[in-house]
Structures are given as C-alpha cells and as structure tokens.
Amino acid sequence: MASELMRPTLLAAPVEPMLPRMFRVEKRVKETADTFTLTLMPERTGEFSFQPGQFNMLTAFGVGEVPISISGDPVRPLPLIHTVRAVGAVTKAICRLKRGDALGVRGPFGTGWPVKEAAGNDIFIIAGGLGLAPLRPALYEVLNNRAAYGGVEIIYGARTAQDMLYLQEQQQWRGRFDLKVHVTVDVGGPGWRGNVGVVTNIIPRARFDPYHTSALICGPGVMMRFVVQDLLKRGVKAENIFISMERAMKCGIGFCGHCQLGPVFICKEGPVFSYARLKEWFEKREI
Amino acid sequence: MESLEQLLSEHPFLQGLAPRHLSRLARCAEVKQFAADQFLFREGEEIKEFFLVRYGQVAMEIYTARRGPIMVQTRQEGDILGWLGVTPPVQWNIDARAMVITRTIALKTDCLLRVCEEDHELGYELLKRFVSRMAHHFKSLKLQLLDIRHGV
Q1: Which of A128, B32, B41, B113 has the fewest Cβ atoms surrounding its Cβ within 10 A?
Q2: What is the mean pLDDT of chain A?
Q3: What domains sit in chain B, N to C, each tagged with a CATH number?
C-alpha cells in the first residue's frame, strides 16, 4: 500500500561483506561502443539475492574494485547481471573479460528502489544513459507484479540511438499494452524515427496521477535535478520521488567514508534516496 | 464535426482561453494535414503561419552541406511551432518535416498579430503562454546542450 512514509528498502549487508566471492563470466554482450552486459555465475553454489537498485563491488583482479549496480531480474538473482561502461582502468579491465574469466563480487550493498512499497501507485521511471541499468530490476519487479500498480511509464533518454541499452528488450517493452515507453535522444541520426530532445520534454506528455505516483530516477546529476523540478511542478510529492546517487563507493558498508554526502553514506543509506530525504544535500555545490 | 473553436480549445496551448477569444482566433485558423516526409516549412521561407500540432510528429532539422539534415528536436501532439513569428518580418531558421502523418491547426501570423493588437487582453494572454513555452524550450535546450557537449 502506498503511503507517505515510503522509504527506500533497507537491507542487511552480506555476512562477510569485505570478502569477495569468485564469479566467472558466462556471457558478455556488447550494448554500445563502450558498454557491456556481463552474465556472471558463482564458482561455488550458494545463496544470492538482491533488491532492485542495489549494487555490488566488482573486482578485476590485479587492477581494482568498482561499485556497479545490479541490472538483472531480482526474481532470478543468478546468474548475476551487470552492465558496465568502460571508462576507467577497472571498468575497462572488467569489460575486457571473456567467457570463463574470473572476477570478484562483494555485495549486494545499499538500499533498493521502494517497488513493493509503491504498490497501488502509478510508476514513473525516468532514466538517462547508463541510468537504465539500475532501474531495469525495478521495472522487472513491477512487471512481475503488474496488477499491483496503476499506470506504468518509462522515459529513457540517451545521447544518440547508438548509446541506448537493451535495444531488443526495449522492443518487447514497447509491445506491451500495460506499459508506456518513451524514448528520446539528444541527436537524431539518419533513420531515427523517434523523439529528439531531452527527457523533460516528455514529462508533460506522460499520464500519471501526481498524488498517487512513485517516480524512480537515475541518470546524470543535472538531468535528475531538472526532472525533479518538473515532477514537483506537476505535483508529485518529494517523498515519492526517488533518485539513485553515485559517489566514490569503496567499502560498501559505510565504514571508510569515501562516499559521504553530508550526513549520509551513499553506499549504506543509499544509493537510492527519496528526494525529500536528500533535498538539502542533492543541490549543494560545495560538497 | 468539431468546430475550429472546439479544436483550438482542445489544444494544450490554448486550453482555458475564453470562448470569445477562441472565436477571434478561429478566424485566423485553418486545419492542415501533412503527409510523412512533407515539409511544414523550410529554412529561409518567410514565417506566415504559427502551428499547433494536434497529432503526429515533426522533425526540426538543420541542413548541413557535409552531413545533410541534422535532426535537433522533435515536436509532437500538444506542441507549438513558430513563436519566432510573433516579431515579424522573420524567416524560418530551421526545416520542419513531418515524420508521420501530422495534423495541425495553422494560424496565419499576420491575422494573429492583428487580432492581438485589436484585443490586448487576448494578446497578453497569448504572450504569457508564448513566454512560458519559450522558457521551457530554453531550459530543455540547456540540458540538451550540456549532454551533447559535456555528456553530463
């Protein structure tokens, strides 16, 4: 039941949070020029479960460790799915891994999107670029329990059509009668038949009841700021707007302080926050 | 069949406008449909009409010699095209091409300006709506520019 006390789902950290488990790459799919989706299986059998929005620390042995959101279906937590963009030394090393290669996994860590708590509400998902990856598990969960929600709409924006994730799956989503998908790009190349412009252009066209809507947002910081402003203007309550924050997460358990933002540790109390909770710090320039 | 006043009142840009104002605007209005790939207007042409998009999708394109037309924005149902024409004489600085069958209401710019001069209350009401759309438009452009240039 939706309520004003909706909070990102808090979860217990893994039993041995600092000890990576060995996983092996089962499949590697090239999503865009620099982004890959890895399917990972644990070396040893064991339990693994996660909530949509949580992240793992992935280790490229001999290179380093990075926080990456889980982008698979929480109902089928294994094999583990991660979508990774090759931007730094560690992510480049992870994206170079081939089938059978090993990597370390610590997690899952952090808070999840409050999908179960949003039952009864309309669900409005707004993703920019790679931000679709941490939102995909939330969408899976909504679609797995579709009858529990009102209208469900997604707005997905990318720089170009070539930068879009999960193209085949997007087509499946578009084919559903119970899901409205809007896609937009900043630059429309030859043959592009969709929207050109930013995600905020689509918000006025989206149909949702602002009093009974949970908005889940993930993307570049500026995009999230603009989207939040527009949602507030349409009457969505600050406590029903959820954002996923990105910071330099290191330990994953609120121990090292690398990801501190004002009074919170993003890795432990986030990465998902209600806007009402983080409002003061979300727009602070000095930190 | 719906009257022009009815069609005008249904468009988000004119929603809530007084019936007498809608009647005045209807005198400047004409329903226009464009086939897929047909141009609503092209760069360099004089702006003679202001469009309310009722259905479809319009690509806003800038032609470049090296890369051909570059689609910089799209407009859909509920959008407007041509606020540049409120300070005539002005030429279009962009091409507008219907991507699919597109239905519009075209308001003749000279007639629109004349009506606004005659009825300042209507003129001021429209001006407020133009400014609001322009503000939204520029805000979107800033975000788009940031994303394209800096990938933020």
Answers
A1: B32
A2: 89
A3: 4-109+119-150 (2.60.120.10)
Residues of chain B with pLDDT under 50: none
Q: How confident is the model at residue A1 (pLDDT cuts 50, 70, 90)?
A: very low
What pLDDT is recorded for position A3?
47
Q: Which two tokens stand for residue A275?
A: 């806007």
User: Which is more confidently placed, A184 or A191?
Assistant: A184
- Whole-model pTM: value is 0.85
pLDDT of residue A262: 82
Nearest CB to B144: which of A198, A204, A205? A198
Work out whether the CA dihedral B146, A248, A94, A17 comes out positive or negative.
negative
ipTM metric: 0.76
Interface A-B, measured as beta-carbon pairs within 8 A, has a size of 61
**Tokens found for residue A109:** 């860590």
- Between A10 and A112, residue with greater pLDDT: A112
- The per-residue pLDDT for A175 is 93
- Cβ separation A200–B74 shorter than 8 A: no
Residues of B in contact with A223 (CB under 8 A): 143, 147, 152
